[in-house]
């Protein structure tokens, strides 16, 4: 009697979405309380098929306050400039920590990837 052993190998290839999207930002020229221009961002690992990047800011010290965010057309750029979208800028009475959630969206609005970036202000 013969026994045959079959070995099946699976090769996983990391897609941009699987590899992970990341983002960072610097407050740059953002001014306290009166600045509605978004800070400059750097994004990497943005999934193929992304048409827009959606940004939303949360004050981690006052999470109930709605700072809003905005959407930016995406065509492969890694730098998103100061003022790319409008939002309610930071206006803390003391140092607060803020988190931006950045979502990669396809042309129909489906989420393809997500990243967060956190920084204190001022």
Could you please describe the fold and organization of this structure?
With 122 residues, the chain is mainly beta. Helix content is 3%, strand content 36%. The chain has one domain (19-121): PEBP-like (Phosphatidylethanolamine-binding Protein, Alpha-Beta Complex), CATH 3.90.280. It contains 1 helix and 7 strands; from the N terminus they run H-E-E-E-E-E-E-E. The strands form 2 sheets. A 4-stranded antiparallel sheet has the order 4-3-6-7, with no helix packed on it. It has a 3-stranded antiparallel sheet with strand order 1-2-5, with no helix packed on it. It is elongated, with a radius of gyration of 20 Å. Mean pLDDT is 87; it is low at 1-18. It comes from Ciceribacter ferrooxidans.
> H/E order of the elements?
HEEEEEEE
Indicate the structural class.
Answer: mainly beta
Report the CATH superfamily. Answer: PEBP-like
Which shape, going by the Cα principal axes?
A: elongated
Q: Return residue spans where pLDDT drops below 50 for at least 5 consecutive residues.
A: 1-18
The first-level CATH class name: Alpha Beta
Tally of individual helices:
1
Could you outline the blueprint of secondary structure elements for this entry?
Blueprint: H1 16-19, E1 22-25, E2 41-44, E3 52-59, E4 69-73, E5 79-80, E6 96-105, E7 111-121
Antiparallel strand pairs: 1-2, 2-5, 3-4, 3-6, 6-7
Protein name: Phospholipid-binding protein
Signal peptide: 1-19
InterPro entries: PEBP, PEBP-like_sf
């Amino acid at each position: 009697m013969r026994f045959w052993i079959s070995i099946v190998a699976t090769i996983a290839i990391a897609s941009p979405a699987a590899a992970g999207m990341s983002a960072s930002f610097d407050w740059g020229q953002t001014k306290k309380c009166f600045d509605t221009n978004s800070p400059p961002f750097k994004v990497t690992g943005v999934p193929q098929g992304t048409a827009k990047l959606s940004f939303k800011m949360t004050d981690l010290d006052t999470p109930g306050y709605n700072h809003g965010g905005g959407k930016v057309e995406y065509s492969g750029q890694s730098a998103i400039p100061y003022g790319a979208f409008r939002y309610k800028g930071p206006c803390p009475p003391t140092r607060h920590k803020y988190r931006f959630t950045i979502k990669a969206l396809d042309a129909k609005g489906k989420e393809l990837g997500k990243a967060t970036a956190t920084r204190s202000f001022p």
